[in-house]
Amino acid sequence: MNRxxxxxxxxxxxxxxxxxxxxxxxxxxxxxxxxxxxGCDTGNCGACTVxxxxxxxxxxxxxxxxxxxxxxTTLQGLARDGEWHPLQRSFHERHALQCGYCTPGxxxxxRDLLRDNPDPSPQEVRNSxxxxxxxxxxxxxxxEAVLAAAAARESVPAPAAGxxxx
Length: 166
Ligand code: FES
Ligand code: FES
What we know:
This protein has 166 residues and is α+β, with helices and mostly antiparallel strands. The protein contains 5 helices and 5 strands. Helices cover 31% and strands 15% of the residues. A hairpin with a 2-residue loop joins β3 and β4.
């Protein structure tokens, strides 16, 4: 067993974990954060995408011990003061989900894109989400939702250094 300390969605957890435990299983089974989905367990579908120390990762491809000392943000950590993140709101308003299984990963991957590229083209959105599979929507509404969230972010002032536009 290995001892880890990891901050998840603003809360620090100290735990003993098996060295082989995947981060997605740690989040879901140990911490009960089931907003992060486990779709394929093989790095193919993107449903398990979370942010680890400022970059989106597929949490089924990362060991929990690799997150030791790190900061993880899941979909469940995005809302602030009871207000959805702009991407959550935009997915809701643009009907960018059907069964919703892919949605947490889609939103986390899109968040990563908008951090690097606040004003992406439709093709750039499609390229950035190519590691995230959706069996339901046909992708069009997902792309529109990401573009709408980007437009909404552009219309509000930038936050102080270190903050995130919400
Ligand atoms: S569950 Fe991680 S990529 Fe599918
Ligand atoms: S909404 Fe069902 S898999 Fe994307």
